[in-house]
Structure formats: C-alpha cells, structure tokens
Design brief:
It is found in: Cytoplasm; Cell membrane. Monomer. By secondary structure, the chain is of the alpha/beta class. The protein has a single domain, classed as Rossmann fold (3-Layer(aba) Sandwich), CATH 3.40.50.300. It is about 35% helix and about 25% strand. It has five helices and six strands, in the order E-H-E-E-H-E-H-E-H-E-H. Strands 2-3-1-4-5-6 form a six-stranded mixed beta sheet, with helices on both faces. The protein is globular, with a radius of gyration of 15 Å. It binds guanosine-5'-diphosphate and magnesium ion. The site of magnesium ion has 2 residues, from helix 1.
C-alpha cells in the first residue's frame, strides 16, 4: 500500500495538525521545495513496506483573481494525478460556502475522495450524523471518517481506510 495522497481543505481545518500527527517522529522527508510547479510534499509516512506521500494542494478555494483561478485549476490537476485525496473539514463549523466551493471542484476528478471530519472533540456526538448527511447529499465520497487530529482520535483508522485506496 504505497502511493500519493493530496490533502485539501479550507485554511485552519487542521491539515497541518493531521500531517504532524501522522508523520510524528517518523519524518522521512519534509520539504518546502516545490516538487513541481504546483505541488509540494507535506510529508512521507513510512511503515513496514508501505509509503504514503502526502501532497499539499493549497490552491483550492474560491478564486478572487486570475491568479487564484489558475491556482484552482492547478490544484484540480494535482487531484487528477494522486491515488486518493483527503478532504478535511472542520466538523465544529458546519457546512459553509468554502466547503461547497471545494466540493463543486471535486466533481471534475475521478480520484477517490475521503471526507475527513476533523475536530470531533469540539462537537457533541449527536451532531455528527446530521452533518454527515449534509455532506453526503452534495457528493459521493469514497469514505467518511470522523477524527480529531489534535487528540489523535481515529487517525489510525483513517490510515487503514486510506491504505485500501493505495
Ligand atoms: P490548516 O490551516 O488546515 O493546516 O490547519 P492547522 O493544522 O494549522 O490547524 C488550525 C487550528 O485548528 C490550530 O489551532 C489547531 O490546533 C486546531 N486544530 C486542528 N485539529 C484540531 C482538532 O482535531 N481539534 C481541535 N479542537 N482543534 C484542532
Ligand atoms: Mg497548514
């Protein structure tokens, strides 16, 4: 189970926190050098014989300029080249326009998208299901996994689910 995984989501949803939690002390590569003009490697997770390369795709948000529009298209291009993508959302904030914009953009790719509902430590357990229903209504996600990146809850499950797509 080795492959490339893009991490997408609005600012502050917890992308960096998740990567830190996953990579932990096992950092193999951590580089800010652009891998291509549009990707940068966020981190590499290595366990046993498998290796997962996490790619940052910073460009997916509602563009406010021509440059922004270019970045969105580049990010979509990246999504077409990876084995799977993690779409992080902040479960404590609810479904807003930022997430709706990203979900629209996701419809252009065939790559399996795993919806990662982060920050579940901040919500009541019974608030989760209605939120899942809202997101499911908008897109046919390959999987839906609730986590707390900060507390490390369910992150191992997420890695196992992800491995099934690599
Ligand atoms: P990014 O912009 O998507 O990379 O988001 P960051 O990883 O920088 O996180 C933004 C903020 O959310 C930081 O203050 C994190 O500590 C916080 N955060 C991230 N994950 C969680 C979580 O699972 N639970 C809580 N309560 N806070 C989180
Ligand atoms: Mg970050």
């Amino acid at each position: 189970h080795s492959g490339f995984v893009a991490i997408i989501g609005r600012p502050n949803v917890g992308k960096s926190t998740l990567i830190n939690e996953v990579i932990g002390q096992k950092i193999a590569i951590m580089s800010d050098k652009p891998q291509t003009t549009r990707n940068k490697i966020h981190g590499v997770y290595t366990k046993d014989n498998s290796q997962i390369v996490f790619l940052d795709t910073p460009g997916i948000h509602k563009p406010t300029s021509k440059l922004g529009d270019f970045m969105v298209k580049s990010a979509i291009g990246t999504l077409g080249e990876v084995d799977a993508a993690l779409f992080l959302i902040d479960a404590s904030e609810g479904l807003g326009g930022g997430d709706r914009f990203i979900i629209e953009a996701l419809k252009k790719v065939k790559t399996p998208i795993i919806l990662v509902m982060n920050k579940i430590d901040k919500i009541e357990p019974e608030a989760l299901l209605p939120l899942i229903v809202q997101y499911k209504d908008l897109h046919d996600f390959a999987e839906i996994v609730p986590i707390s990146a900060l507390e490390g809850n369910n992150v191992n499950t997420l890695l196992k689910v992800l491995a099934g797509y690599l």
